[in-house]
Amino acid sequence: MIKATVNGKVFEFDKEDYENFGDFFEQKKIPGMVLSKIEVNENEVSISKIDDLLKATFEGNENIVLEFVEIIPFTLNLIDELFVFLGNFKKALPDFASSLMSGDSKAISGLTNLHEGIKSLEAMKDNLYSLTGIDDSDLPGFKEKHDEILNVLNGMNDSIQRKDWLNVSDLIEYEFVDKLSYYDEVFTKTREILDSRKS
Question: Looking at the domain that runs over 2-70, which CATH code has it been given?
Answer without folding.
Answer: 3.10.20
